[in-house]
């Protein structure tokens, strides 16, 4: 499902623990890390798609997490030209995403990667909240920054800085 401007509807998931660290997943067979994300099927609303993707990519169900919030609007990123499948119709030039922030409420041993029809990840780790901005593929950084800026204020942990500028300059500011 591609919209009239060439963007595929998608959800992104920031999963945090009680310390405010976030779930950072390694793409299967690659040295590429990202947050869980995935497409919205035609019969789904963004929240339904988020819970489906959460299950398929991490093995976690709604009862394993607490929904803290979501972005107010669609966040978009364009794919680099070399990743656009120019022979496909309709042409997809990027993704528009609704991002969700969740808190893990079960033991992390519940995470597994064999629930979807195609395994997306083969490893994961907890990282500092702003770490993904330095590690994600370059063309997703802007949308990650927007999602993390908006959703970071919803974290329960008091010791997580919600200002990325201080982290990106090498200092993690508290508050």
Automatic annotation (TrEMBL):
Its cofactor is Mg(2+); Mn(2+); a divalent metal cation. The keyword Protease does not apply. Keywords: Hydrolase. One of its GO terms (molecular function) is hydrolase activity. Residues 6-149 form the Nudix hydrolase domain. Its EC number is 3.6.1.-. A motif (Nudix box) lies at residues 38-59. Pfam families: NUDIX. InterPro entries: Nudix_hydrolase (IPR020476), NUDIX_hydrolase-like_dom_sf (IPR015797), NUDIX_hydrolase_CS (IPR020084), NUDIX_hydrolase_dom (IPR000086), RppH (IPR022927). It comes from the Bacteria. It is an enzyme of class 3 (hydrolase). The keyword Hydrolase applies. Accelerates the degradation of transcripts by removing pyrophosphate from the 5'-end of triphosphorylated RNA, leading to a more labile monophosphorylated state that can stimulate subsequent ribonuclease cleavage. Belongs to the Nudix hydrolase family. RppH subfamily. This is RNA pyrophosphohydrolase. It comes from Methylomonas rosea.
